[in-house]
Fold:
Amino acid sequence: MTKVTKSKIEVIWSMRKWPKEYIKWRLVTAYPNGWKFALSHPIIFVKDLWKFLTWCQMIDNDIEI
Structure:
């Protein structure tokens, strides 16, 4: 059976269901000042987000449905 990898856009779309508290927690644990750091350092945030999306794609491929 052939597995289809979700695009990064599809991964982001599936994240829309995440609770805001969880997103805030992720930012606080990833960066010193949470969302303030992400807003003041957009290039670092985008690079990290890209790596996270790539990781999510890899994990999705490993999950057996």
